[in-house]
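Let's sit down with a protein and look at its sequence and fold side by side. Once you have written the record down, we can walk along the chain together.
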Amino acid sequence: MKTAIIATHNAGKAKEFKAILEPKGFTVKTLADIGFTEEIEETGHTFEENAIIKAEAIQAKAGEMVIADDSGLSIDYLGGKPGVYSARYAGEHKDDAENVEKVLSELRGIEKEDRTARFRCALAVSIPGKETKTVEGSVEGFIAEEPIGENGFGYDPIFIVKDKDQTMAELSPEEKNKISHRAVALQKLSSLLDANE
């Protein structure tokens, strides 16, 4: 069995990686599984830079393949915000409900055609002795006027998927795993991993 360490403590995120990597014969471990508790400062200005910083820092300590992601929401009306600050948009304490409320308050009264947004995800793969590789995925949509749906996490309840007329939080985990920004990036990642056999 090949091991892939996912650079996260987020159970929701780990589940998405497992759904895609385990069928490929990977044992998926999280930072909690390997006892990694250090805070890595994400000083990058892009999702890609932050993903590389995380993957390389953890791989240097763990000595095994590490996959790190940095992802978030970019809203056109807000000039691409919250962007790399998605997780801590309403403050350093990283509260999903407060982040959602902040976005909704900033878009109050804005028409649907001006609420365009996309979820973006950059994945970095750091393998001992090899150059770090990255892939990106995105999914287009709009920001809803209020949270709808029970599934998912983060901004999922206010992100209406283009062509679906449902928020990410209304989709089943199976549907989300087919179309999400992370799913798109993971599909690209799987080709990259196959090339690294």
In short: The first strand starts at residue 2 and ends at 6. The mean pLDDT is 92.
